[in-house]
Design goal:
The structure holds 2 protein chains of 2 kinds. In chain A, about 40% of the residues are buried. Chain A is globular and about 50 Å long. Chain A is mostly beta strands. Chain A has one domain. In chain B, the strands form 7 sheets. A 7-stranded mixed β-sheet of chain B has the order 5-8-3-2-14-18-16. The longest helix of chain B has 20 residues. Classes of the chains: A mainly beta, B alpha+beta.
């Protein structure tokens, strides 16, 4: 059975790094293009359209909203002292999208963080509502230390280490 | 840090505390060789396989979307065993209302977010086989029992070795709406012209495989693990509406009665043409769309030595064909597609078919069948002998994205390629998806690269599998997992084995050894039933390369490749020449880092006591340790008089020596490929076989000797080992840019077609 049936994939990947110079979390989410099209609009009206998106398209903002709904990061932060007394939740900005010729779409995201302290929780359940066998994988880089974690439908949240 | 190495080198015996695991031979994992399958991986001298021949009359009812069949099966028992019963596959029972496929689907309430979702969940469709009768050739009823997707016929008397039996089955079923209920075959309805396009497969009761491996193949069809069937000869009469065009497995025997004279003339032209010739044009197909004939025609097909039969039928079909020579035979390559497939299909499909059978023939065996067919079928890709159904549909306005184009190219190459794996090299898909999908995806990659230079293949290159293999392994399975239990089907059964074979070809074995061994496997097992052990053994047998460590790591585990270059030590030879060595020592001492207090004291302290009082400095204070004296010279002369001439010459050669340390973080052992960049800008690549890990599986080191200093080392510079972390591969350390950083560095983000439009406006002065 061949390549057009997108359901061979059931996999999305994310890379996320903390940029200490800009105090930003920056990264890329990678999906099978048709899977993301189907997840955002289950009736299939977006199938084939992501290849033609530009950053000003209303659909791009739809994607941004979807990603923020399904890729959430919360982290310890300090508002007015060094004490980590608050858990912050911010939204990612979708800075751009590139569809690759191998059938994947890369979504480039960033999020400003004033300071990043433990605990850092990540929830990554994108596409799982549409494809129950979906797995997502995140590689988180913090000060050159890398950690890769898996997310499945019954385990959509992980605590990330800050080493 | 550069160190000075003394000539006297001590050898240390390194004792290993770790037991050999990664390089242990595949003993218990593989079945014991026997007279049917040898330890070399070849069929044994008592290898046998059964034969199943079919004569079928099929009627396609375009009004009711129903198919009726009457088949006569002649089954030949070539085994040494007495058979008391026969088993048949009833794949269409996947669509039976009581199908296990629906029952075993794991569901959560949150999967149903709308009424539409629930309605879809509750959708009922009676799509299973209706078996009306099974009789012997005298018309006497035979006793049978249906167990879900399989049917057992109890024989009145056993079928003895060498005997055959003929019997007849009458059946029908409702064809599934592929767009509504899914499926590898079925129909697509085009509301715009009220026509149907049928792609019909796995549609008749088919004999199961009986062999030395499993006895009767007895795994139910649950939907994912596809099938394996015995080879046989087919004669099939397909009755369809008179205005339908039919494409099928095999050669049509009666074009004279089903085609017009003009169509036959074009067909004959196509058989001699090196480029596609339209046998039915789009204009003619569009005219046919309006006909809706009430009469029928019967198309007769004959296929020899195939493991299955499939066909497509529609009045919407455009049809083109060309020849492709393989060996000394001309193969007729054909495509059937509705206007909705254009402009992509008319331009590419048949050329892709021709390219695929030519290229696969080079790497496997010569394509043995007379025809190869690609049929347009929205969304899916599915393969059968000589015919396959492929997606790739442009927008309604005829435009398409570049991704859609590559998707269509890829799926046609892939599905046509399945003629070789598993239609000819007939592995058991229901047990091992990777044996056909993985091997096929590998040759697909080779074929894509010969279609277009730097073709953006989805799978094949090692670096493309890194994301899947990296990190937490809980969510993935070894390749050697039964088809129904695989986690992450696409990456596991398609991508990872294709990558593994690519690594064997490019890195572990080399192209010549690999290609010979791979072709040997294909030749040995063409028109036979291979198992994983037959493949593993043949690849080693034909290459004299022990690959057990590779099969063990890549096929039996979920470990990944992450090899780190953890340390580099730099040494130079001590020449023993005091003139050189004391000068070197002086320069090295002068270059040492200086404590800040010492630097400041040079100016802050005007004069120390010993600088004021000449009586303070004694012998030790006054001696010049860098001065070469007569004793030094005498010692050097003595050294020279004792040293061999070649040692003296070697000492004078100014060798630069590096000790590199490596750590196996991911678990998979792989060759070490190291790119060395020298101070003059030249490069060298060192290739160390994976066996360097055979004793120490976690950490190893290796010494390299060069004529000039090295400025950098880089591990896996050609991205050939699927290393999942490239940041620990370089010395001096260098982080690889992330995808995000690469995106931010790119200047042009405009849609290429829009940019082209702006450019044309600018050039036209608008």
């Amino acid at each position: 059975m061949g390549g057009v049936s997108a359901h061979e994939f059931y996999f999305a990947y994310a890379e996320l790094s903390y940029n200490e110079f800009t105090n930003n979390l920056e990264g890329t989410l990678i999906f099978s293009t048709h899977d993301l099209e189907k997840a955002i609009e289950p009736n299939g009206s977006l199938i084939g359209l992501f290849d033609k998106l530009d950053e000003s398209s209303p659909t791009t903002r739809l994607i941004e909203a979807y990603l923020n709904e399904h890729f959430k990061l919360s982290y310890g932060c300090a508002l007015d002292s060094n004490a980590v007394d608050v858990i912050c939740i911010s939204s990612f900005t979708l800075e751009g999208l590139v569809t690759q010729l191998n059938g994947t779409i890369e979504c480039y995201i960033s999020m400003p963080v004033n300071a990043l302290y433990a605990p850092v929780y990540c929830q990554f359940n994108a596409l799982m509502e549409q494809f129950p066998l979906q797995q997502n994988k995140l590689t988180f880089t913090y000060r050159q230390h890398k950690e890769t974690v898996n997310f499945i439908a019954i385990d959509t949240q992980h605590t990330l280490k800050l080493q | 840090m550069k160190k000075h190495l003394y000539l006297i080198i001590f050898a240390f015996a390194i004792s290993s505390l770790s037991a050999q695991t990664k390089f242990a031979q595949l003993g218990q994992e593989l079945p014991t060789a026997n007279a049917y399958r040898t330890a070399s991986g070849a069929p044994g001298h008592e290898y046998y396989q059964q034969k199943a021949d079919y004569k079928m009359d099929i009627v396609l009812d375009d009004e009711k979307q129903r198919i009726d069949g009457f088949e006569t099966i002649t089954y030949t028992n070539n085994s040494p065993d007495q058979l008391d019963y026969l088993w048949l596959q009833l794949d269409q029972n996947l669509f039976d209302e009581q199908s296990d496929t629906k029952l075993i689907e794991i569901e959560h309430m949150e999967n149903f977010k709308s009424v539409g979702d629930l309605r879809k969940r509750d959708f009922k469709y009676d799509g299973g086989f209706k078996i009306e009768q099974i009789t012997n050739t005298s018309g006497q009823a035979m006793k049978y029992f249906i167990n879900k997707t399989m049917l057992r016929i109890d024989l009145a008397k056993p079928l003895m070795p060498g005997q055959n039996i003929s019997f007849q089955v009458k059946w029908w079923y409702n064809i599934n709406d592929r767009m509504q209920v899914g499926g590898r075959s079925g129909y697509e309805y085009f509301d715009i012209d009220q026509n149907y396009l049928y792609t019909i497969a796995q549609f008749f009761p088919r004999m199961c495989v009986y062999n030395d491996v499993t006895g009767w193949q007895n795994k139910q069809f649950l939907g994912r693990g596809e099938f394996t069937l015995p080879f046989g000869d087919y004669i099939v009469n397909i009755t369809v509406p008179a205005d339908h065009i039919v494409g099928a497995t095999g050669e049509c025997q009666n074009y004279a009665t089903v085609l017009t004279a003009e169509q036959r003339k074009r067909y004959e032209m196509a058989k001699k043409s090196d480029s596609p010739v339209l046998i039915i044009t789009q204009q003619e197909a569009e005219a046919a769309e309006k006909e809706h004939a009430q009469k029928t025609k019967t198309w007769t097909y004959k296929a020899t030595n195939v493991r299955d039969f499939a066909f497509a039928s529609s009045r919407k079909f455009i049809w083109d064909a060309q020849k492709q020579t393989v060996g000394n035979k001309d193969i007729l390559c054909m495509s059937y597609y509705p206007k909705e497939g254009n402009p992509l299909w008319e331009r590419y499909s048949t050329k892709l078919v021709a390219h695929t059978i030519k290229t696969y023939s080079k790497y496997t065996i010569d394509y043995p069948y007379p025809v190869a067919i690609s049929v347009h079928s929205k969304w899916i890709g599915m393969e059968y002998p000589m015919i396959c159904f492929n997606g790739g549909r442009p927008e309604a306005d005829g435009t398409y994205s570049e991704g859609e184009k590559y998707g269509m190219w890829g799926v046609i190459i892939h599905e046509v390629g399945h003629n070789f794996f598993p239609m000819i090299i007939n592995s058991d898909e229901r047990q091992w998806t990777w044996m056909d999908e993985g091997l096929n995806t590998f040759v697909q990659y080779l074929t894509e690269q010969e279609w277009e230079r730097d073709y953006p293949s989805r799978r094949g290159p090692a670096y493309l599998i890194a994301d899947y293999m990296r990190g937490d392994v809980n969510g993935i399975s070894p390749i050697m997992t039964n088809s129904e239990s695989i986690k992450q089907f696409g990456n596991n059964a398609y991508g990872k084995p294709a990558t593994a074979l690519n690594i064997l070809r490019e890195t572990v074995m080399g192209r010549e050894l690999f290609d010979f061994a791979f072709k040997t496997y294909c030749q040995r097992w063409a028109f036979k039933h291979p198992t994983p052990a037959d493949f593993f053994r043949t690849m080693e047998d034909a290459s004299a390369v022990d690959l057990d460590w590779f099969w063990r790591g890549w096929f039996y585990t979920t470990e990944h490749v992450d090899i780190a270059l953890t340390d580099v030590k730099w040494f130079e030879l001590n020449t023993q020449n005091p003139n050189l060595e004391k000068d070197f020592l002086q320069k090295q001492d002068a270059g040492k880092d200086v404590f800040i207090g010492a630097t400041r004291n040079k100016t802050a302290i005007e004069q120390t006591i010993n600088e004021k009082d000449p009586q303070i400095d004694d012998f030790y204070a006054k001696r010049n340790i860098y001065k070469v004296d007569a004793l030094d010279q005498q010692a050097y002369q003595k050294f020279l008089s004792n040293a061999k001439a070649e040692d003296q010459q070697y000492l004078a050669s100014s060798k630069e020596i590096y000790e590199l340390s490596f750590e196996n973080i991911g678990g998979l052992v792989m060759p070490l490929i190291i790119e060395v960049t020298f101070v003059d800008g030249t490069k060298k690549v060192e290739r160390i076989p994976a066996e360097i890990w055979r004793i120490q599986e976690q950490k190893v080191s290796k010494v390299f000797i060069y004529d000039q200093p090295v400025v950098s080392f880089r591990l896996d510079p050609f991205l050939e080992t699927a290393d999942t972390d490239l940041d620990n591969n370089t010395w001096p350390p260098k982080m690889q840019p992330t995808r995000y950083q690469l995106y931010k560095q790119e200047q042009i983000r405009e849609n290429p077609m829009q940019r082209q439009q702006r450019l044309e406006k600018l050039e036209n002065g608008n």
